[in-house]
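Hey, I'm writing a tutorial for new members on how sequence and structure tokens pair up, and I'd like a real worked example in the thread rather than a made-up one. If someone can provide the structure for the chain below, I'll link this post from the tutorial.
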Amino acid sequence: MTTRFRIPHTLVLLFLIMIAALVATWLLPQGSFTTEADEAGRMMVVPGTYAVHAERVWLSPAALFTSVPRALADAQAIIFFLLIVGGAIAVLRATGLIDALLGWLLRTLGGHPALLILFGTAAFAAGSGTLGVSTEYIPFAAVLVALCLAMRLDAMTAMGIMIGGYVVGYGVAWTNPYTVLVAQDIAELPPTSGIGFRLALFLPFVLIAAHHVWRYARRVAADPGASLMVGVDSAAPAAATDHPPFDRRHAAIAVVVIAAVVLMVYGISQRGWYLTELGALWLVVALAAGLIGRLGVDDTARRFAAGAAELAVVALLVGFARSIALILEDGQVLHTIVHAASMPLSRLGPELSAVGMLLMQTLINFFIPSGSGQAFATMPIMTPLADVAGVERQVAVLAFQFGDGFANLILPTNIVLMAILGMAGVPYDRWFRFAWPLMLKLMAAASIALIIAVWIGYA
């Protein structure tokens, strides 16, 4: 009798990575770059200043456990936002809005899943490429899954549309304030410069992602047993066979949601809003939806609490993912990894140097999943390296974008990825099987784009 091998729970996988990070602090040289504050008060790495520390810091195995509550506290803003969003989605579910909206969408797009995949991927990519939207997509994961289930697709197709669009948007971003503008500022380039080439790249990369999802969806439609979600219960509401009509009450609640989304976009782009303000906005949505939907105060509160409780595991995933970088920082090997990854680039030609920058940024993204954080850690090093290798600084910024964006498809340290998967009930190991071929396609296309950028003198 044979026992089928099973991939461990995502929390177990993250804990194993934490152990590997702890061992790295024991084995790797501990060192750091000198950092200086720029005019905006941001701490910047000074290139060429990496030095090994004379005395080692020893992290005991207890750090594996103490880092988790510290990481949870460090990521409290996104965790509380997730809990609030979970509660708001549960209230919207209880009003019947989601089922009524699904019925309307099914009547509109029911026979055209390819259109949903193409336009959905493009829409998510546009939001990420312009405003840097990522966390804000989390509330819509369960809704998109329910729509795909009702169209006889599966939850993996929904995640391919949403996450595929999100990472493509970050990879070829036009004006993303958290990545493009930060990296260009560090590289001393004009804000939004080079946007024409990035706009030209947008459609090809969207098509790569959409085609990957479409091929999978077509295979599942022909043979439901081919779905990667076989044997997994989605966290999204099950697809109803008889959808209620979209009445005036649902329309009023939909107006509240649309107004909230518009206000969210305005707040992010014009007022500098982030998780605190967005969490407050979704609280208002939950309250308004409960009152308009005639749930009553008590039932609204019960639905909200139950929805928030469903995301407890997701909150833990966020904390465990953040713990990995925290251990590397405490063990003083994070800069060592950045330094080691950057050294070979100075000995390659311009084309290979550009591709090497992409590979380095992809590697470092595992340890520094924050786009702006990665820009502050690596662009001060990549900028002079680009000068030495004969690579335009704009190309170095593009390599950073690609590495920061596309690797987010599979990195378990990406808390947005883990939160969206948790919201949709898609196990990480199943998602990895779907996503890694897409990442290889995007990386291959990115390498070609970088070589072309070097040839045309992209600046």
